[in-house]
Fold this sequence. Notes:
Blueprint: H1 27-38, E1 41-46, E2 49-54, H2 57-63, E3 69-71, H3 76-84, H4 97-109, H5 112-117, H6 119-136, E4 142-143, H7 144-161, H8 175-190, H9 201-227, H10 231-234, H11 238-244, H12 256-287, H13 289-303, H14 310-313, H15 317-329, E5 335-340, E6 345-347, E7 351-353, E8 358-362, H16 363-366, H17 370-373, H18 387-396, H19 414-431, E9 432-436, E10 445-447, E11 451-453, E12 457-462, H20 468-476, E13 508-514, H21 520-532, E14 537-543, E15 557-562, H22 573-579, E16 591-598, H23 608-619, E17 623-624, E18 629-632, H24 638-658, E19 674-679, E20 691-702, E21 709-716, E22 728-732, H25 737-746, E23 754-759, E24 770-772, H26 773-779, H27 789-796, H28 802-811, H29 816-821, H30 827-833, H31 841-846, E25 854-857, E26 868-875, E27 877-879, E28 886-888, H32 890-896, E29 903-909, E30 926-931, H33 936-950, E31 958-964, H34 974-983, E32 987-992, H35 1005-1011, H36 1013-1021, E33 1025-1030, H37 1032-1054, H38 1060-1070, E34 1075-1079
Helix pairs in contact: 3-8, 6-7, 6-19, 6-20, 7-12, 8-9, 9-12, 12-13, 12-15, 12-19, 13-15, 13-19, 13-22, 25-26, 27-28, 35-37
Amino acid sequence: MSGEIEIPEPSRIPVLGHVTEIDTEYSLGSFVHLANKFGPIYKLDLLGQKLVFLNTHELINECCDDKRFKKSIEGDLNELREAVHDGLFTSKGVEEENWGVAHRVLMSAFGPLAIRDMFDPMHDVAGQLAMKWARHGPSTPIHIGEDMTRLAMDTVALCTMGYRFNSYYREDTHPFITAMYAVMKEAGDKSFRVLPQVFYKKQDKKMKANIKLLRSTAKEVLDARRLDPNGATGRKDVLTAMLNTVDPVTGRKMTDDSIVDNLITFLVAGHETTAATLTFTMYWLLKRPEVYRKVQEEVDNTVANGPLRVEHVAKLKYLTAVIREVLRHSAPIYAFGREVLKGEEVIGGKYRIKPGDQILCFLAKSHLDPKVYGDDAEEFKPERMLDENFDRLMKEFPNCWSPFGTGMRGCIGRAFAWQEMVLALALLLQNFNFVMHNPNYDLKISQTLTIKPKDLYVRAILREGLTPSSLEARMAGSYSAGHGAQPKTTAHEATDGSSEANGIKEKAKLAVFYGSNSGTCEFMAQRLASDAASHGFSATVDTLDTARESLPADRPVVIITSSYEGEPPHNAALFVDWLTNLKGKELKNVKYAVYGCGHADWVKTHQRIPKLVDASIEERGGHRIVPFASTDAKDRDMFSDFEAWEDDTLWPALVKQFDGQPEGEDSSIPEAGLSVSFSTPRTSTLRQDVRDALVLDSRPLANGDLGPVKRHLEVQLPSNVRYTAGDYMAVLPHNPKDTVARVMRHFHLTWDSHVTIKAAGPTTLPTDASIPVSDVLSSYVELCQTASRRNISTLSQFAKDEELRRKLQYLATDGYDVGVKNKRLSVLDIAEHFPSLAIPFNHFLLMLPPMRVRQYSISSSPLVEPGVATITYGVLDEPALSGQGRHIGVTSSYLSSLAAGDRIQVSIRVAQGGFKLPIDVDKTPLLCVAAGTGLAPFRAFIQERATLLSNGRQLAPAILFFGCRHPLADDLYRDEFDKWEAAGAVKMYRAYSRKPDASSGCKYVQDRIWREREMLYDLWDQGARVYVCGSNKVAEGVKDVLLRAAREKSEIDDGKPMTEEELEEWFNGIRNERYATDVFD
């Protein structure tokens, strides 16, 4: 046929086809990678299995025509037929009579009235889950995926066959469930195996044994129902329908084998997808505070304090929209199969589909189609899924949302699953507040036949006024708010064995909350809590999100938080959203203090969140203990400022107002709050938030003759870790070995020395285990952090003579800025400079902040190799400001020490503020600006564009302005960019500060932008997005020149230039929409 084109595909390997393109542990990631590379359609040959992937709504909708195409049962579905034969999910359709009989019998069994009658057993199981979480308490991490799986499995079993697995009342997993998961995994594995099945006899034997267990269990349920005098007629459930209903077409009932097939099918298909959707919903709610709040408000307004009833389900419109949006973004079954009904078909007017081709309608991409959902298709916006707009979308774009399949083979249990999900989420949100156990959790996927979040842990905190007993009464319909409710034990309660009854005065209680991404505010909170005992207080520490709806009124509250481009930290977003949406004087009894951390270079958003929290609590009736205070990382020592505020302002006020115990005036050596003992056994410790990656390459890019050495690092990411261009790699470094050796020498420790740490209060150090001292010093603490005033004051108490004591006290006060801060002297530097100081090792450790991760922009595209990422960095190695030795960057020196084959601990952090490639790469031009290693994210962008071009994709123009020192010194990745420019992926404009005559006389990138400004005007009118990466100085310079250009363009377009106020308003309007920055210093 004229106009036909070949369906694109990756390079083949003889016999194997495209098997090597697929990650068998996470095939979804491979399929997304290929879709991003090839666009609307591509094909794969997996050991003779012909797959055609459709990635747009237009193509998928065409293949949903039941007159031309039908459901395909291949791959893992075909393997499952060994267990469930021609059950509803795995049947080939009308050609198998059992499917027709079962389909017609079960349509009524899953009808509206039947589903409504299942509300009570659904509520029964959901109530068991709620009671389990209530009794666990607010501090217990909950593996949300595991508990949602128990919920869904128990619900399906109870509602369809009257069988109780009682998953919440047993330590182990029911054998049926274990066998079921084994069968599902084996079915998926078999579809990707390279060798003939004869090589997998052990797996085959295990598969058959598991299938036998599944079928025998289902048969026992069936036989038990028949033997029950009231079973076959007295119960109105799905099993009764299968036993008694006569098919109106054939006049026969379902056979026992068909009943067993479908009982197992219900349990497999009916629990896995529901559990995954509930887990994904919890993830999205916790990542979108404003959505969480709206859902919970709707539940509160609809259900109030009474029991959840069946009539409430239909009224929860926003919750319904949330689940729809979750299924759009994260459909557990991310593709459904189709095949031609007969002969060959041409789709899209140009792609030929042949018999034997399995069409995979790839929802993971089509559900994000911008032609259906707009330019914000990748954003999570439940409002687009509210009834009116959802109905419009489904009418205007049929099959644009298909998580339940399509046509006559669509999921028969859709209404069942929907009621179960709405019921469970409403019940849980009515009674609990949830927070991430790890606020920095980035979505990781666990994949079997379906996908779900991997290792997602949350904490469930009973909402105000509820106890486990009153929760149980509420669910039973006998609870009345204010009657029988008791003050709840919150996540912030401190347990203290002392009491007035024992003749010992109980310590006053203090609640400390923090909002922190990098760890600075968390460390300050822990330091404050560890100091509490010496002032007569018993303190608890937790994230701000745990204080949502439960900011304590029975004890003073101290909040330490920061802002990130004007937004709350990850673990404070839920709290800030709740706080700013209060309307009355809900916090009238709260007594509080707020301390803010920030950087003054971010002028518009400096201290926005700390100030907002402080003002909002006061506006809602709270009472300040002390005035708002803050520190500025730009030109202040943050830890010294905090300690001064703590010692001079906060503690005196707390002691005075809340009956604490003032510190004595004794100048003797202070209590450390930390004890250590040494031993020799070896142990190992595990990290949180980061995983091991493998270094593949480490090489220099610039020699350092003109500025710092620039280097390139390439790593193989952990399995199942994915990223997109624009994301960051967070690295957990180790202190330089030379610095660790200095500490070991100073304290006369041998390299095989071990330490056991016991802490009296909160600490980030590993406790109660013997580990090497060198490991603690290398991995857990910041040895190079500038000493704070309090650090030096503490050191002065270990001085052997009065003269040294006076010197140190001077450095801790008037001489601090000149003598310590400006020279960046660490505690170790000072200890070495005054060798007569006999500071104990435990006091030394206590003064050091915890090791924190550092973020680097990823400089590669996952389209080149999805599991591999690179970073580009400068090595900090310069003369120390103290005049002695050198100042060595902790992370850059660590990274430069790595070689291929080394291990490194990393995680992926998602880009914020719109710093990612646009969805419509063919329509939206790019204007990119970088200086130095700020080129990193643009190497990723342009590498991705070059890959797309090489696979036949059309792209809008891209311009890159790059500033460096000299064309022969640090023109990074020059060969690569020349090749990409020749291919049409980018147009480069450079500025050389040390050789401007080689860059059209332009010294800096802003000079080059101004010179080329007329070329940019047309691109801006085409909808171009601007990206800037570099130091704050670069960002400000670029902003200034763009404002000048905008003023000039406005005069050209409108006949008069914009005013300063208009320019600022214009710039604020495009920020994070068409203007994105990635700024570092």
